[in-house]
Structure formats: C-alpha cells, structure tokens
Predict the structure.
Amino acid sequence: MRADRNAQRLPAERLHADELDALTADDRHPRPPGWRLSAQAVRRFILGGAADANGPACRQKIFGNDLAVERAIVTLAGQRGLLLVGEPGTAKSLLSELLAAAISGSSTHTVQGSAGTAEEQIRYGWNYALLLKEGPSERALVPGPLHRCMAQGQLLRFEEITRCPVEIQDSLIPVLSDRVLHVPELGDAAMLLSRPGFNIVATANLRDRGVNEMSAALKRRFNFETLLPIRDIAAEAELVGREVDRLLAEDGIEARLPPDVGLLLVQVFQELRGGEALGVRLEPLSSVLSTAEAVNVAYSAAAEAWYFEHDAVQPERLLRHMSGTVLKDDADDRKRVTDYLRLLRSKRGGEPVWRRLLEGERWL
Ligand SMILES: Nc1ncnc2c1ncn2[C@@H]1O[C@H](COP(=O)(O)OP(=O)(O)O)[C@@H](O)[C@H]1O
Ligand SMILES: [Mg+2]
C-alpha cells in the first residue's frame, strides 16, 4: 500500500498506482512516442475492463462518454492539443487528470486558469537573487509547468483555460504549432524544443466564460471534446454510490449510502436536469445539477445521519441537503423545485420511498 494516509486527496497516479503498474507490466500494444502506456492501455485504465488477453482488470472511471474518451486519447497522441468542454461537473477535470496520470505518469503539472494567471506562472520565472548576481542564465531560470512538461515530454493540464485573459491563452499558439518555447532572456536564438510525449489537455466550462472568447487561431490548435452529463440512471446511481462511499470511508464514517437512497436522488436529479417528470414539462433550474452535485448532496446527508444519529441516511434527509448544495441562494430555483415536489406528491405520493423523500420538504 503506497497510499499516504496523511494526504487529503491523492493524485490519480498514486490513487490508482496498482492498476497502472499492472497495465505497464502487461502492455504489449504500440505506444505513441513519449507515452508510458499504449493507447489501448490508457483506454482500459479510464473506461475499465475485466482481466483478459488484452490486459488486467481496471475499474471504469469515466461513464457515459466512451466515444469522447477514445477520441481524446487519439488527439493527445497527435499534433493538436485537447480541449475538454462541458457543463460544470461533467468530469472534465477528472478525465484530464486520468489522461495525464496514464500517459505521463504524473497529473500534477497543472495550470489553474483565472483572470490573474500570468505568463511566468505558465512558462518560466526567475530566481531573482541569482538573476541579480549572475544575470540571466540557465541556472537562474525557474521552470514553470509548461517548461517542465516540454522538457520532460509530459502532458500539461490547463484547467479552466477560458478564464485566463485572451493574451495569456494566445501565448500557447507557438507552443502548440511549433512545439517550441522561446527564452529570449538567454539569447536571441535560445529556445526549448519539446520532447515527444508533450501535449496540452485543457478544460473549459460552458457556464462561466465560454469558449466564444477564445481566439480563432488558438481554437484551431485544439480538438474539442464535449463531455455530457450521464443519461443512464443506473450508471449514474452506481457512480454516486461509489464516490459517496469512498468519501465516507476516507472521513472515517462507517455508514454507507443505501443503494435505494442513491437511486432516488439520481432520479430526482435526472428529472430536474432533463426538465421533465411524469410526462410534465418542468421549468429548468439555473443551478447546476451535475453528478458531482449529487455526490455532494448524498455525502452531506449521509454524514449528517452518521454524526447526529449514528445511522445510515434515509430518504427524508435528501431534500434538506439540496438547499445548501444545489439551490444555494436562488429563490426562483426554490420555487421550481417546490413545483416539482408538488407534482411528485400528487403522482407518486402513494409509494413509500417517495413519500419519505417528500417528508423532507419542510427543511428545503
Ligand atoms: N461521466 C462521469 N464519469 C465519472 N465521474 C463523473 C462523471 N460526471 C461527473 N462525475 C463525478 O463528478 C466529479 C467532479 O467532476 P469534475 O471533473 O470536477 O467536473 P468538471 O471539471 O467538469 O467541472 C468527478 O470527480 C466524478 O466523481
Ligand atoms: Mg473542472
């Protein structure tokens, strides 16, 4: 067991070290230059598979987007960058982390995009004491994540790229097209050529600042893949159950999420997200009802049941936690949910599990 018990959250290459080791030992398929695994093994790591002639057993980690995952792998083996787009909570960050862990063995070369992201945080900066003493030199240069990934032939993760100012985004154009990073401080011709294996996997949310402000020149250097919310109720419920149980275990809570409670919550989320229930159209919510939010709601409800009642969570508690995690401060959303609950009461109120869910409405 290599897991570090004192870490709050392990990077994917540590969390799944056993699977990655088994995949490496077994891998007889062609590897793209600079990759630690073949494209097939990367696919198996992310989409899962039972042990067979093609490789060891791996758990499925990304659901409902198989085609996008396969195309993402192929893109990264080629000459263009990869941009994962989608609503918040559709596993863009998770997929980019898994790709980097499998392809480069490291998912921690990451730039977090924000309005304040500066070029030095991406490319390189300087050790100012050395810079003043000796002038610009290789020794005084402090490589940023981009410099490091290019020099080592690894994947760079660029989170929320569209939140960066456009000039900062555009500084990636020469890197993606010519695969070179100029270092003018070290001389006119000083440059870093990227090693095989280097590429960029970026993510962008459709809600915040969309991709519409990205320059056409940069867009052309990326292949876009859209991640969609999971449509299959059983698959989403399985994922929510697994994630919540993992979080509960990590926090030393002995209770687990009862599968019927998980299924109930996912059904509520899918109906609110899809804007339809029992053949009736619902007004869409402005808040994000992602799988990640479902995990948050179920986790809070389960943790509360454990801390206050020392018991597993019951359906009554679910609605109470939607108000803090999903609805937050939007009064219109609250009304939309109330309308939905009224519909449930009239159409499903006779079924015990729904009746128990509705008992929680007084807390909403
Ligand atoms: N399709 C999916 N497959 C697997 N996990 C998912 C999926 N959609 C959402 N999740 C869950 O949601 C969590 C948060 O996703 P995240 O990667 O942070 O989303 P994003 O970056 O798109 O906002 C993931 O860690 C995972 O638990
Ligand atoms: Mg993200």
Q: What stands out?
A: Residues 158 and 202 are 4 Å apart (CA to CA). The chain has two domains: 12-226, 233-363. The chain has a mean pLDDT of 93. The chain has 17 helices and eleven strands.
